[in-house]
Amino acid sequence: MADSTKEIIHGIIQGFRDSILGISKILKYDASIDNSEGELKKNEPQTTLARRRAEKQKLKGNLEIKENKKEATVKQRLFQCSVWNGGVFLTSIVLFHWALLPCLLWFTELIFAGSENLNITWLWISSLLSWIFGALWILPLFVISKIVNCMWFQDIADAAYVRSRGRPTPINLSVLVADLLFSVLLQAFFLIQSTLATFLPIPGVGYLVGFIHMSLLYSLYAFEYKWFNMGWEVHKRLAYIESYWPYFLGFGIPLAFLTSMSASAVISGCIFSILFPLFILSANDAEESSQVCHSPLRLFAPVVMITNILFRQSVKSKSTPTTQQSSSPKKQTRITEPATRR
Fold first, then answer.
1. What confidence tier does 32 reach under pLDDT thresholds 50, 70, 90?
2. Which among 159, 18, 150, 151 has a CA at the least distance from the CA of 75?
3. Residue 24 gets which letter from DSSP?
4. Are the C-beta atoms of residues 279 and 106 closer than 8 Å to each other?
5. Is 79 left (phi over 0), alpha (psi -120 to 50) or beta?
6. What phi and psi, each to the nearest 5 degrees, are found at residue 15?
7. Which of 129, 64, 63, 132 is nearest to 102 (CA)?
8. CA 329 → CA 228, 334, 338, distances in Å?
9. d(CA 152, CA 224)
10. pLDDT digits over 76-110, tens only?
């Protein structure tokens, strides 16, 4: 029992350390394609003989340029995520709630000073402005941010993976679509499960269980890009997290803690979008714990079962019209022939 507790604590500390120290590796991505191209142009030989000699290094120069492009893509996407989610989205929310509304409240108090209708008037004004701001600004911006962030996160993950591990494992398109749909549906159910866990009647336990859910989910988000490029299927990814859960719990604690500091889901989403690319880089360079936990945490088992049931029902519903249409004996024979050959 003591050894098991020590392993769990050691795994949590190791995961927490890797998530924080991995962020510092962004300093490695300091090469710039513009500087490299400038140096190549500056040192470009002028004589014909020198140019012929330079052709021998052409392949090497192209590889260096491609490598710099990947590094530039990482830094560029990180900057775009920070500017968009922090400079535009989050700043607009802060200015509205902590600058515009207080100024309007002061102006309203100045106009309706001593009036009994001050509170009712301000309630109507603030509610109307909040609704307009949310409907015409927050909601469209939130949807756009989700789409744009997904593309930027993928670019960061792919560029970092190619730089450190080489080309991703090729995957069939049908397998890619099925894996993506299954993973998105499973993560949605797991998020609902974590929300329901916070309503446990025991004080403090509900928050702790929900926090563990979110930490593991954020670790899955971060490592999923690397594992997918390695060719791991979704069931293998989940089984790996459940077997080494102390490490992934520790890895997801920083991001789960920072996003839980705000009660607003929108602000938490902005914080997540700003910091998450850094954790993608940490996960890409991290060396996961090799110590299997003797007490696996099967938190994903319920949502995996539900997702499997839904996928089976959808497959059955798609295959039913095909079987109904094949009513003639010849058609039925043609359908069953491949199964007989197997």
1. very low
2. 159
3. G
4. no
5. alpha
6. -65, -40
7. 129
8. 44, 9, 16
9. 15
10. 888 888 888 888 888 998 899 899 999 999 988 88
What region, left, alpha or beta, does residue 291 occupy, with left being phi > 0 and alpha being psi -120 to 50 degrees? Answer: beta
Is residue 330 very low, low, confident or very high in pLDDT (cuts 50, 70, 90)? very low
Q: Where are the domains of the chain?
A: 20-319
Is 200 exposed, middle or buried, given 0-12, 13-18 or 19+ CB atoms closer than 10 A? middle
Q: What is the CA radius of gyration of the chain?
A: 27
Side chain identity at residue 17, one-letter code: R
Four-CA torsion 332, 335, 336, 340, nearest 10 degrees: 150
Longest alpha-carbon distance in the chain: 91
Cut 0.85: pTM above it: no
Mean pLDDT: which of 48-57, 156-165, 215-224 is highest?
A: 215-224
